[in-house]
Amino acid sequence: MDMSWRGLRAWAARGGIGPQALLLATLCALTGLCSAGLGTDSNWDLRNYHLYTAFAFLHGRLGFDLVPAQFQTFFNPLPNLPYYALVQVFNDHPRRVAFLMGLPAGIYAFALGQIAWIMARRTLGPGWPAALATVVVTLMGMTGVAVAPAIGSTINDVTIGAFVMVALWLTLRAADLPVPQPRRLMVHMLLAGLICGAALGLKLTNILYAAPLGLLILALLGLRAAVVAGLAMGLGFLLFWGPFALMLWREYGSPVFPMYNDIFRSPDYLPIRLSDERFLPRDWTQALFYPFYWLRPTAGLVTELTMRDARIAVGYLSALVIGVGLVLRGPWRETLRAERPVILLLLLCLGAYALWAKVFGIYRYLLVVESLAGVLLLLALARLMPRAPWRVAGLTGLAALAVLLTTKLPNWGHVRHGAQVIRLDPLPMPAGGMLLIAGDDGLSYVVPFLPPGVRAVALYDNLIRPGQEHGLTRRIREAVANHGGPFRILLGGDLTPERAAALLTPYGLTLGPCTRLRSNLEPGGHAFCEVERGG
Fold first, then answer.
1. What 3 state SS string does 263-294 have?
2. How far is CA 36 from CA 22, 30, 92, 111, 424, in A?
3. Alpha-carbon separation of residue 19 from 16, 25, 244, 399 (angstroms)
4. Out of 137, 218, 448, 498, which could bridge 226 as a Cys pair, Cβ 3.0 to 4.6 Å?
5. Dihedrals φ, ψ of 478, to 5°?
6. pTM score, two decimals?
């Protein structure tokens, strides 16, 4: 191969697997380095359930332990298996673990770049303006509040979001075919459906993207394409959600326990629908203008931490420009045929946002919409300046720079790299004992470090509350009453010794002396106390 600059350009311009593989590898390396540069992941979800659920799944502890990871004990553990495996193999190499955890973000960036290139090539032609615009909107999409802080994190939003982004890319490729190619269309639909179904199975919040994507395939690509994609999506969902759902059904009588217990009526929890409504819009007007609330620093509105991001507001205004342009373009049948990829992308973002505003309100779940805002901006500017590709590329770059400079990213939790990924003080836990857990802090990450056979049982957390009576509380009482060995209790920072003693009293237990259990993930440590019967 000609290694001169001209030869490399010609090789890249020919496309094919080689240049694409090189681009993917480069992006994965960059996101891996970015993840390593952020430090060792220590986010609350990691301490609460990401490490524990993988450990429990692999060691058959779903019914053995009782709610040690709070409500999140019952989340699908499959997304957390890679991190758990990396910690088991490379715990003494935290930078290596961080780098490897960052690699899926490169796949996310690659798929986003492919989507951006499809749209840039359609509107600006295949030349340098389109290439420059593609780079700009990809960078804009990777640096937002939802994406950038989650690169390499066990939060897994970007890792699972990569599935959604790849499925959307495949669907847009099918919609962008210049002439009908039924076989190629079906292959794309099969792959897109499987991948999107897997994303939904791994994290149910991806219904935000799976539902509108399925409907749009039906509306824009036809019934046959929708049937293939729908069946594949169902198969992908069952493969990645089914095994754990079956475990939940066998243990608790519900495939989504404890969610939707007003429908499934598991005796192990109250017959109510659990939902987190803290961040939902207060009314329809706020829902309509919600993205503009994020133009100034806010905390507690759609995230727990302070954030500011203009991307979705920019995408919102761009969507209005695109929508007006489509309406004014001419006969709708001709517009539909000529603008199918644009319509698909536009309606997917609008549909996902509408569903998000109705059901979730948690900003992180909008990461795909956030990442696609730059693509919508490019499309809008191209409609306003249809014969000025360099001007469009330049203005896209300036707008992206303004957005980037005004973004305020939250930090979900990192500590400086040390000697180990997870370093925990030796647990003074007797063999054959029971570890009681109480508090709203993330505490279950200590459970994999307990001596074999030690059972972890929660007395108080975001699912187990004093005064409630249901199957889980009965299981807890029976477990404590029937345990013949020693007890210890691990306390969250929200519990004083007095409150802890009051929690133990109904079980016939008393609080003994306490020490501090410290780890690199929680340097301040946790109270670790002896517990005696009687009193």
1. HHCCCCCCCCCCCCCCCCCCCHHHHHHHHHHC
2. 21, 10, 14, 22, 21
3. 6, 10, 39, 29
4. 218
5. -65, -40
6. 0.94
